[in-house]
Amino acid sequence: MRLVIETFNLTAVERMLCVEALTTAGSIVDAAALLGITRHALKRRIIKHRIEWPTRLQGASDASPKSSMAASGE
User: Fold this and answer.
1) Pairwise CA distance, residues 30 & 27, whole Å
2) Is 9 within a domain?
3) Residues 6+ apart with CB under 8 A from 44
4) pTM: predicted TM-score of the whole model, two decimal places
């Protein structure tokens, strides 16, 4: 994968790399492996940059089946 960095702002680039790794990998553990850092280090960066993870779209789709299963008593 190739990323184009359009700024010398290291904070913005770090945030972009974290978001791209999370989107590509789909999980914090796999994204951290892509970046070559620990899961804990990635979690600190998610908090630092206020990255919403999982995204609202993912969170909504994941919550629906669980809510319907709980309501039906399964």
Assistant:
1) 5
2) yes
3) none
4) 0.72
